[in-house]
Structures are given as structure tokens and as C-alpha cells.
Amino acid sequence: MKTLVVGANGQIGKHLVSFIQDSDGIEAKAMIRKQEQASFFENLGAETVLTDLENDDIDTITKAAEGVDAIVFTAGSGPHTGKDKTIMVDLDGAVKTIEAAKAAGVKRYVMVSSFDTTRQAIQDAPESFAPYVAAKHYADEWLKATDLDYTIVHPGGLTNDKGIGTVEAATEVDRGEIPREDVAKVLLETLKNDATIGKEFQIVTGTTPVEEAVKSV
Fold first, then answer.
1. Which SUPFAM superfamilies does this chain map to (predicted)?
2. What is the gyration radius of the CA atoms in the chain, in angstroms?
3. N or C: which end of the chain has fewer CB within 10 A?
4. Coil, strand, or helix at residue 190?
5. What is the pTM of this model?
């Protein structure tokens, strides 16, 4: 299975490409924005494709998706970059990638979302954070309205701690934190497990090994 990792140069994306390249039966195609980012992925033996998620059109992203079997969207502006960047990356960038998947005939699509993207979460979010939650909400809704084989992963608060390989995963879990490395491990197991198709679930640090936790959702 060849997998296009969107946002590959981000922290979750880098972990995911590394894990994919170390796995049997799956290989990564890293979508990057700058040529100078390529060496990291080339050293892992991963293919790269130069595409600007924010500024390129759907046709260009479709070309980047040609020849892959799955897409994982790990890109994100972050909650503190301003409303304009949030709209262009977390909402429009996600929607363009979803439409590119459809155009390229790629059925499998895994979305990294925010922990809680319900309507109530938008209403309850602080003013500075609400645009980010809203962007993620509508990107998730757009994906769910397609006939793609989607999975939506909702991680808790992201940290740069070393992953421990154990998580709690369910439709709803208590709010908590999770290392980005462990999020990437969950994404890899999600790709491997077709039983996750059509599902969305939250993840935080827990006591269940990642493979077992993903199987249980």
C-alpha cells in the first residue's frame, strides 16, 4: 500500500513516514512544500512530491495523489496562526485534498482532526481557538459526506514527549494529552486495519498497546 502523507514535514508526518518505511507491505510518498525538506524523507527511502497545500489547486494535488492507495492528512496550521491560515490549511487544504483523492481514485483517506469538533465544541471554545475547531469541524463533515473509505482520528493535546506505545482510544475519552509519536503509531495501525473505515475516535495516552487499542474502536 502506497500512502501519500500530506503535511509530511510536520512532526506527526515525519514520525508517520518513518514508521511506514519500517513496516512491511506499506510505503510512504511524502508531500512536502519545499525542496530542501526532501533529504529527510529520501534518507528513509521514501518518495517525495513537491506540492504547496495552501496555494496549489485541486488538479495539482490530484497529480500528487496519483499512484497511491491511501492518503493521510496530517497537515495543520496550529491553533495560534491566525484565522486566515486556519481557513486556508485546516479547512480549504483538507477539502482540496479530499477532492483530489476522489479525482485520483484514491478510496482510503485518514484525517487527523482536533480532539472535539462537535458543534458544541465550537460554541464552547475560547474566541482565539474557535476558528480552528470550526475549520476542523467542517473539514470532517466534508469528508464524512463523501463515499471515501475514511477514518477520522481525534488526538488529545499534542506533546513532543517520546511515545510510549500505549493509548486510550474510543468514540469518546476523557480529555488528555498524547505524544505526537504515538499519534503517528495510531495512524499507521489505522491504515493497516480496514475495520476502522467509516469510524472516528478520540485518542489520548493510556495503558493499551496501540495495535490493540485501534482494533477495539
1. NAD(P)-binding Rossmann-fold domains
2. 16
3. N
4. helix
5. 0.95
Instruction: Compute the distance between CA of residue 1 and CA of residue 108 in angstroms, rounded to an integer.
Output: 10
Cα torsion through 172, 176, 180, 182, rounded to 10: -60
At 127 the three-state DSSP class reads coil
Cα–Cα distance measured from residue 104 to residue 133, given in angstroms and rounded to the nearest whole number: 28
User: Is residue 132 flagged as an active site residue?
Assistant: yes
Which of these is catalytic: 109, 132, 138, 150?
132
The DSSP bridge partners found for residue 158 are 178
C-alpha cell at 55: 496555494
User: CB–CB of 60/173 below 8 Å?
Assistant: no
Fold observed for domain 2-156 = Rossmann fold (3.40.50)
On whether the CB atoms of residues 113 and 150 are closer than 8 A, the answer is: no
- The rounded average pLDDT for each run of 10 residues, N- to C-terminus, in the chain (217 residues) is 97 98 96 97 97 96 98 83 83 97 98 97 92 95 98 97 98 98 98 98 98 97
Buried b / exposed e over 27-48, threshold 16 CB at 10 Å, is: bbbbbbbeeebbebbeeeebbb
Q: What pLDDT is attached to residue 84?
A: 83
CA distance 137 to 124: 13
